[in-house]
Fold each of these.
Amino acid sequence: MLVESLFAGPALATVPRVLGFIDRDPDSPTFGCCDRAYWHYRLIDMANSRAQEAGLLLTLAWLHPDPGNPFSGKDVLLDWIRGVWRFWLAARNADGSTVEVYPNERSFCATSFSAAAFIESVRLLGGPAGFEEELRLAEPTFLWLGSHANPDVANQMAASLHALSGYAALTGDAKITAMVRERGAEMRALLREDGAFVEYDGLDVGYQTVTLSSLTAVTRLTPELLWLRDAIGRGLSAIEPCIGEAGEVDWRGNSRRTQYVYPRALVAWGSPALSRLAAGLEAGSLVNPCWLDDRYTTAFAVDYFLAAMEVHHAHEHP
Amino acid sequence: MRMSTPKLIILRLFNITFGQFEPCTRLLRKALVWRYVTARPAANRYSPTSKFFEMSELAARSPLR
């Protein structure tokens, strides 16, 4: 099977499930909410903003050129995507931060990843054109991200750098551009000599691939952070020996016990570990987006789509 | 009607106090079933097994632009 299909397959298989998480009724007061436990089951008192990353998954499904992709070019997805981002904008705290678990939480993690997904979705859909109002409303979120940090966990810092770089690239906002430089320096300081981006004082192979995926996105958004390519190379070298013959990782040795690998950066930079991930996917033994629960499947499927698109892009522009 | 923080707190307070006694939990269940299922028209009932995605939705386009 083609490597592109190996990654696109599980991502596409996840889309109908994720669509079931979303309130798709435009007349509903929670139209665009992607947390089914909130808008449909009514079991919880607030929606997890990370669920809104489904907006990026739908964007990628709409764009992905696979002839077997039933979502490609279907315009109803554009309505749902806009609804998802409008709900995300409306559900934020007054200071622009977002919540993940409890009311009035100011989650650096959820704000970083959901903002990065928002900006990537807008960019892929041709923004800023057509999204001027959403980008204007979103500004407080990016200002909040630039003035808050969580250096204990590199993957969240990388996601915030991705979000800030994307907003700066789309809007040219001078304040956010300065924040990109500062966050870049903070991010660089998290890289150890051995190539590990630290997660609570240690290396976690799974989270390192999340970090490298975000940093790969940043390289496409800003030419300023010249150290990034070397850092990504060192980061990949640190984890490649930890990925087994079928793409598996020994999670017992990970600082956060993560069981899975985000493939996008490995594909983008031609890692030798890519063939091992492909072997695991072909054998049906590798943890993939279809295996994860409602909380993590969307973000993982996004990375599978991005990996498939990296392969596609590499074939078209060798 | 969505869950709100005050409603969730009241529900949990009921659950850990009166809820210890089985007649109270039975009464709560009956009240919830009446409020969200039997007292409503079929099209508007709480049904956790509904609202999943169907492929036919791809053909439609909502009025939102």
Amino acid sequence: MTVIKVPRPPKSAYDPTRPISALLKMQVEHLYEAEARLPSRYWTEIYPNAIKTEGEAAEYIRAVTEAIHNAHADAAQRRAKPAKKRKGVTEIAAVADERAERKRKNRSRASAKKKKR
Amino acid sequence: MAPGLDALKHIVVLMMENRSFDHMLGDVPGIGGIDDPAAAAYFNPDTTGAQVKAQALAEFQSQLQPDPDHHFPAVDLQIFGGNTAADRQPSMQGFVKSYYNQQRNVGHSQKILYYFPKEKLPVLTTLATEFAVLNRWFASIPGPTICNRAFAHYGTSFGRVDMNLLYINEPFKSIYDRLVGATPKHTSKLYYYDTASSTMEITNLLQHQPEVFGTFDQFLKDCETGNLPDYSFVEPNYNDHQTDVGEEAANDQHPDHHVQAGEMFIASVYNAIKGNDDLWKSTALLIVYDEHGGIFDHVKPPACVPDQFTASANATGTGMAFAFDRLGVRVPAILVSPWIPKGKVVDRVFDHASIPGTVTKFFLGDYSPRSPREINADVFIEPNGPAVDATRNLLSLDVMRTDCPDFE
């Protein structure tokens, strides 16, 4: 079996200050459109028009990508929570009756206490 | 009998950025590259009228600055050499002229013809000679990245020839949608490198179906644990950025990113699949580039069946409408599997619409609706069944190879 050595690029190949290409610029613009559709609590505080370098673009791309995933994850979590059971009309009426009964009993207990004193 | 197709359970597509076939593989003999550098096809006129020869002088970085123009009007000039006649045919004579337009420097404009000596790209050239090189794979559109990548996801760009795609509620589903929505359900993932690189498929899929996405780390883990989906699309790192664990250099090979970083990335995808024996025998890996990035190739792009969309003269920027009836410039494409005989050269015509076309036919069979371009695109993996055409089946070995290379 042949083993092929793969040369590594030099350290100098890495340059996050490199100006962004048309492709990265468009990726940032697409993400800005996506960000604008998110609820405001997921918005980043980065101004996309000021992004000039790859490192800056990466920071914004990460923030919005994570925000999109978080927004969907939060929505899924809310969907998964069992909704609070709503009371029907008859149940509401029954609760109202119970309350009235409790009030009446409390009142008579209080007046009984007063009399004792 | 097609044991390779019987064994096939996973298709993986790795799409790199912006390099032409001749630029990357032109120096490999016998595969349709630059076999005879003295031939007229490998010359382009510069703006002084001198004929300039393609030469094996390409460098890994800093040579193609500014980024060669590859928007629709520039690619039109590259392919047709400035001919705007109604009956014009591709000449591939406008690459130097086009690059000259960006810096007005005659010497610099000639670098657009440079290609890599094969020794400089050990990963790509080894894979091309060890497995199947598809030497007539063309970009889907003579234009830039986003509309070309759309063809890989949807089989069409919905009439767009630019970078500004907003294809929501369009008539054709993505390949991921088709697979995960099928009965029985199939699995599919689009692996971007990490969140700081993210995906180029933002407008639609990331906003609406983030669950189909994963990171490259997850891809590696899924390979190791045998949990790779039926279909995977892998995206490289598109930018240089800092992470918690250190520096991440872009490995997409987009000029002016270092080409060796891309070589390492391609090797890591190959190694991840090959490192799991079960996965290796049941996976086909396609390595392909989204478009040529404005860089020279000598093969004339063929006409094709038109799509059902037309880009207006205003949208193309050439003064002429485009019916999606011609392919873009040729790009490198290699199909890897231990069931492919060593040194296979395939000269059938493919484009990125072949990706959803192949995946759909292999996993789902007949599926509708699909774009006219996708329906007519050739497949690189035959659908498995009782009547497999042996002359077209690239995974044609009866016994799996055990002599495939390793990268370290």
Amino acid sequence: MASSPTGEPPRSELTFRFRGAKRTLDTFSPRATLLDWLREEEGAKGTKEGCAEGDCGACTVVLSRWRDGRLTYEPVNSCILLLGQIDGAELLTIEDLAEGEALHPVQQAMVDLHGSQCGFCTPGIVMSLFAHYHGGAAATRASVNEALAGNLCRCTGYRPIVDAALETIDGAPKDRFALAADARAAAIRIMDDGRDLFVGDESAFFAAPASESELAALYAKHPDATLVGGATDVGLWITKRFRDMKKIIWLGRVVGLDAISEKGGSLRLGAGVTLAGATERLARIHPDLGDLMSRFGSMQVRVSGTVGGNIANGSPIGDLPPALIALGARVELRRGEASRELALEDFFLAYGKQDRAPGEYVRALLIPAPGPGQAYRAFKVSKRFDEDISAVMAAFRFDLEGRQIKSARIAYGGMAATPKRAPGAETAIGGASLDDPRTWQGARQALAKDFSPLTDMRASAAYRSEVAANLITRALTEIADADVPTRIGDLRAAE
Amino acid sequence: MPPNRKVEIPVVPLENETAVVHKAHPHDSAGQHVRGGAPYLDDLREPSGTLHLGVGMADKAAGVLRALDLATVRAAPGVVAVLTPSDIPGRNDIAPAFKDEPLFAEKEILFHGQPLFAVVATTREAARRAAVLAKIDIEGARPTITVADALVTGARVLPDYEFGRGDIEASLASAPHRLNGKFQIGGQEHFYLEGQASLAIPGEGREMHLHVSTQDPTEAQHIVARILGVPDAFVTVETRRMGGGFGGKESQACQWAAMAALGARVTGRPCKIRLDRDDDFVMTGKRHDFRADWRVGYDDSGRVKVYDVALNARCGCSVDLSLGVVDRAMFHASNAYWLEDVRILSRRLKTNTVSNTAYRGFGGPQGMIAIERVMDAIARERGIDPLDVRKANFYRHGGNLTPYNQTVEDIETLPAIVAELEASSDYRARRAAAAAFNAKSPILKKGISLTPVMFGISFTLIHLNQAGALVHVYSDGSIHLNHGGTEMGQGLFTKVAQVVAEEFGVPLDFVRITATHTGKVPNASPTAASSGSDINGMAAKIAAGQIRERMVAHAAEVWGLSPDKIELREGRAFGGNDSMSFGELAKKCRENRIQLSSAGYYKTPEISWDRAAVKGRPFFYYAFGACCAEVAIDTLTGEMKVLGADILHDVGSSLNPALDLGQVEGAFVQGMGWVTTEELVFDDQGRLTTHAPATYKIPVASDVPERFRTALHLRPNPTESIYRSKAVGEPPFMHGIAVYCAILDAIHAVKPGGQPILEAPCTPESILNAVRSLG
């Protein structure tokens, strides 16, 4: 491997903090998961495996990192997180929380309020709440629900768990981790050596380049390597599909790849920006984007998964592509020293196939905000509100002139083999009036020509078609008349 | 509810009369749960040399296995052995009773994912990777998948069974009003967070000791012995705790125990199996899905004159527990209602799908939701509030004989609960508010419902209503407690320990709870049918009572008093002006050769059931409750949100109100999941396509309604149960039915008077279809 721009040879051992001390590992399988390492190598059995696919949260552990000038506590699914991804972090597991006999406040509240029954999900729940405890704000019912969206409990019905969180999380953490924050932060920051990481040999390795130039060079040299953003999808290739990935390039240490900036009037999100990290900026573009991001997987998925990963893996059901295609987003790609830019919808060629050459990677997304006279809506429809995959995802940007629609960008997920625009509907909606739902019919009907969706376990083709059309109605109803209730999430029980 | 209001644990009125029972003790393992210190099966330290199993599965749902080429499997890295039917020393049969399901398929393929062989390897990963390498040649046949398919083929796992009374056709013909309909009632995956797991450790000779994550160690023992071809006495099974059971680790745990034991027998080394989540979904049984076909005749006020229902149950590929499950669906097909003329018919359909099994409620929910659907249909047609129709039909004087001929003696408790909940939930005002909202909201609609639950307590297989316990007092006064019940999170161990502590007059921490073990308490019944604390609590009380009597007699002798002057309380013995610690007394007993160990045995009195004659008293008593649910639906997408749930549930004089509250709340949320997001989808090849949490959606925290108010009805059980408490595991599950009925109510708001077809679970697609079915 080439040496890094600093001239130093790459670091050949993983470095992290665990149980209050620095640890290094120079020999491990590139596809080893953090959970297997904890349970099988370290004998730390407190962290549980419930599903091995990042959907139940029983394996939740916390990674403490130094980000944006502060110490963060990120809950992650250790079952699908690659061991190498903990480089530079402090790993905190359920065994770390109590101090001798004294339970952590979150643990004590879980006992006092009867928050555990079978107890199998409990370590993961405690770790998610521990991360929330250190999140910097007092808990609300909504914040706790959000923190727990990735933690399944089959016994309690969650009520006592939520109460335990509300009782303990006041935004002012006072546990021993908070008290030792400065020392811990210093110990974490000192591990950030800015060097490339390369563990293994040319035939099998876990690499984490520190710069884009090194990433470009390494990937050009090993186009058969697997690029990993958060591993929230790649992890399953390992645990469920037994894929023999021998070369892994993790993007989490590439300086600058997680930058958020403005470029030509657009928001530029580096491919390495996590879904959690993108949420606030996207919400500023439109509240629907913020809502969408908060329903994206779970907290564990959002702190790990990246916007680049959500685009690059080309899933027909990824939620971000349709939402951004409707805004006219573009994608930046790089291969070696060459960069190019294309419209996001053109990146998706066919099922599982993207316009990405061997050795080329997604570098950034460029997202223009809706301008004056433009109305934007994005809707996700799934069986379960939180932590579910869309049956249908729809996004709209209408260009309005008074009460008339001049033109539109309409994009759907879940309706075809790729995220896709609806050219027929876009054409048909031109000239329609917000005040006359009959003029929306053409666009609704045109969808039948735009899409031939599939029937699968999430929904039938007929349902998808009907809902796709109805979401045009919902979008235009909202834009036409703000007083008609359309958001079920806003409703409360009658008192 | 203000967001930060802490829910107070209710106080049992009798709590001053007892020292330990009726009190809100935390779960005995809570302190370990929260620190990751409570070991589940896969957390136990493995004996050295432990091997791991992976399972090879059928890739077709039906047909004949022509050839199985395992050469590449055997050659894979780390593989030590491959287990096939020819390795089984005993009988290739894991069925609870009917000899209709093998450990490994030999010829006929019963379902997609059926185990064909198992790999034993040095690591779990090696075993799983090797297991997918077999060359499987199955001559496929057209599979029978759905209820509708099975009604066409006519295949049954057991004969049809019906009971009832009256001339149904004549009664229907003469009824002032008639309705009929049919609807699907979905199944449910248990989704215990800890998947199936077993560890088998070979002993000397042909002995085998197992740790099994099971609700039924005795059944696991029997099946392991059967597979190994050894007497039961050669096999011991131990279970400290499960990470959830819900019925899914009753019969369904045995196969994996047997597989691990077979591996241990063949290799002579300890063998562990822990199923991957996806494999667990595919290979283990679920709640039965049903189609209910119903006809009803009723009068102007909505009182039912005649009810005729066919409960078509998808049992899957074998009987498993379907005899009892579908019988219980029939027992609860009347729920809380007097049905003058009635016919309840059940069909136990055989399909090429995994064999359905026990799941919390054991068929009861499916029978109950059908008649609740019918109550709503009557109310719509009559234009009467559905709650008033329900009330008009409750069991009453002169109308308190169930369709299975048990007389309902307690006809007061349920109406009292419903009246109290109607007031406390503000049902009428909220119904009016929902109507007002709906009048102004063309797209979103609200619905509300208040439904009752009446659930019979006892195993309907009468011989299971027995339990044993083993109690030792050591000479320092510490107490070792063992009984046949298993701990799966419900708090059974805590409740039984409370009973024992109460008996000895000692603090709860004197009692050491120990793992369920077939070598300590034999011939135990499964921990199921909500019976755990009722029967094991009684057995433990009897065991402790016997020791207590001896200890009291000895104290009386020491102090020269009569035994009735001796009191055990607060960890001490008192007599006259003397007292000594419980430990001192225990020490004296040992020194004076007083037996400090006892086995207790209990069998539920007064119950009987003659299935052929439809006679007897299958239920010792009934547990009651009611739930008021409020929902909103989106008529453009079918999306739904549960806005509120108010529950009042009868737990008698609760043994532990904190644990009971947890059971009620948790059961409601699980029942809500059953009728809403939890959809099992089999494709036309019989493959389960929702086999992981990515595709099968159980409720998460945000699905729980913001208004969620649970109260316990705490009157003493009129029947002589343990401390007059009531069983609580299953009954509150059926409060989820209120959510189904509230969704129905919201759909009705789209077109009042219509009769929508609403299939359960009420996914967005199901709700949108129901809206469309209104025309």
Amino acid sequence: MTPDGGRRGPSPRPPRWTHHLRLWQLVLPASLFLAVYFAVPLVMLFWWSFHAPGVAGLTLGNFHKLLTDAFFLQTLWLSVRLSLEVTAVTLVLGFPLAYLYTRLGPVWRVSILFITLLPLLTSAVVRSFAWIVILGKQGLINGALVASGLVDAPVKLLFTLDGVRIALAQVQLPFMLLPLINAMEQLDPSLETAAVSLGASQARAFFRVTVPLSAPGIVAGAILSFALTISAFITPAMVGGGSFTVMPTLIYQSAIVTLDWTIASTTAFILLAVALLVVWGGMAIARRYRYGPAGG
Amino acid sequence: MTAMRREAAAPSGVAGVGAGRLRGRLGHAAFWTVMWALGLGALLYLLLPTLIIVAASLTASDYIAFPPHGLSVRWFVRLWALEEVRVAAGRSLLIALAATAISVVLGVAAAFPLVRSRFRGREGLNAFLMSPLILPSLVYGLAALMFVSAIGVPLSIPVLVLSHVAVIVPYVIRTTAASLSLLDPHLEEAARSLGANAWNTFLRVVLPNLVPGIATGAAFAFISSFDNLTVSLFLADPRVETLPIRLFAMINFDLDPAAAAISAVLVTLAFAVVVLAHWAIGLTRIVRL
Amino acid sequence: MAITGLSRRDVLAGGMTAALALAARGAGWAQQKELVANTYGGGWEAGHRLAIAQPLEKRLGVKVTLVSMLAAELVARTKASAGGRPPVDVALVDDGPFLLAIKEGVFQPLPMDKIPNAKRIFEKYRPKEPFGVPIGASQIGIAYNSKKLKTRPSSFADLWNAEYKGRIGLSTPASTLGTVTLLSFARLKGGDEGNVEPGFEAVKSLLPSVASIQAVPANLRTLLERGEVDIAPMWHHDTSILKSKGTGVEFVLPKEGGIAGLAWLAITKGANTELALEYINQGLAVESQQTMAGPPSFIGPVVEGVEVAAEWRGIVPATPQDLEKLKTLDWPRINLQRAEWINRWNREIKV
């Protein structure tokens, strides 16, 4: 039996142009495309952030203008604060779910992944819209709060910062969850069982063994969640309704409404720099925690 | 905490053991209750908004309501009548198909050297090719707008398509590379030993086995392009309004059940992609990518 | 397989050139038959689509695309596209941005003789410079939910009424509505376009009663519709939309005088002028104006011969006499300071 199903004759010859092809060259089209259409624009943005309208040559003028403006600093701080809060919430909610994932059977696992991936693949516009519907005074959340007696009157959630927090946490939860699951899957469950058999309570074993060992996943998830939240534009715009400003709003406004691209670039640059700083800071803290009490 | 250790290590007498075990069991129960509560809460939190918007799209009323006031598909029917929605949807489809096609060509090709070749800087190149996934699309949208304007190219559908390619090609590369690395090299060896040459082996052994991986990557890429708002907002000319942009505008001006209907359609699309991904590769394996 | 005489490369090159030429021709051809016009979203877009775009498409067999773009973005993008195709052919802008855009040089002068229907424009609305024509008249007053609030407001000063505490909605100066609100408050306390300080003070003193501040007027309308706010300064057409939905929202013209506003149509430089003129002419036709004066747009007509239904009279400004009772604003002066007002509001006003 010949590989081509029994037909006689020589197997088809490859096209002549493949003769001169080296395997590594196959990566060139994608690499060149991204280099030109992805990297170059970003370098340009970096370059433009050091320019200002009406000023020739490189200048720190925009940086000075922004970093001395009270409203800008206020917005920057709000963005950072909001993103940290949202990341913390996604961690608290995501970790138990990731933990359950590792302890449950295949049907549960697929279901959890399904429910996690579905919002990811749904447009941010749709997800934000859903929250607009849910957060109204007659919406689901207020309905539940009033019915349970936790509040006397409906709470104002739509077009507020609180509402955006709630919406953003749900939008970012999958980004926290997936790295967590990834990391925790690779942990040996017998480690925790061993700790329990040595006399630790379940909770203790969890906090002393599982959590520290999941640190890489926590860090990865937190970084992703934080970076995406601080640059989120759609959800704060729709669910916040323009009642407050975050960094992405400023960038969009200066780019599209006022058309001052140098300021927009500088703002974007500062956003990236601050995000990176926070991430590095977080990783440094995480590292110290890992080599600290866990050893003692 | 030292008290627990002492107790567990040296339970004093039968009563001590019993008390220790009871505390252990209560602790065990409490722990799992909390875990399950938070876990299920998280699942509900993830799922509810999607369900609610789909439910709201089936309302018979003139305004957005959840729970829906009466069930009806009239808003889906209405979508078809809304010319601007039809046009935007068609445009989004065209852009997504074009961007996905280009991404598949670029991405599948790139996956091979990343998995099979050994060359210096391979890790770095891989990181570079994956970087659009972690860079905020807001920043990229701005950068792309400025770049295109600087080189003097007017905004158009091809410009938008290419910018989508930049942000979606990593999906194709990643799933194809993962699929390729999982491919049993023995298969190719067997084909070669039976007399097939390299090209034939590629066509008839390697490629068919890669199809699930490529298809999944392509599906993710497609829906990312179809859903994309941030990059499109920056690069969109009024003449190239995509469906997410139209939806965004609709919601910002009026909370209409028609917007909910469009959303429900997008959710269905996402649903189809997840099902495809599960069928092709299996969701549990995708997580490990 | 080699084609005798020509190498594959030649065929490819030839094919591409031919394709490009065809595409260019096609694009040019398409351009003659295509128009992009700006509207505001919601009711305005629906009204313009029904009254102008669709009749035009039917009559001339062309394609009209309606987009909604804020005035600031429109000006910015048009300037950026200088030399090429502007983002829209026909622009719709409010009074203030209209003057600003003229100064920025983004509109082309209109050959009024090519717009026959312009002869019917009310004398009072006729433009001083031929850079645009009015297309709709609007007024700003107070929208309040009569089902939920017992006291009918008669003036902006009534907003400080105890019954409205915690139920007021406001707009920021980022929108015309918000700018007008700020100025109305200023005028209440003795200020004007040159001295807006009393306005800011007034807003700050009202803050304890304010439930929500929105930059986008449409959001304010949403909140009013869903009962998150029950009273707010609002455009008459937004209020009419809410009233027509049976929400119980009513429109009140303040006794100190509401504020009048005109919306203008203009043609951007580099636009498809021929079709744009047709669009404008269609917009000024009596049937179109009649359509737009009714639901879902409720836009006040600018030409003679339009009948406004009885139940909407008093809300929809039907004649210049209606608008005469209203104040108009010194937009050139406002334009100079608006950015500063917006920044100051962002910094100082928080709910």
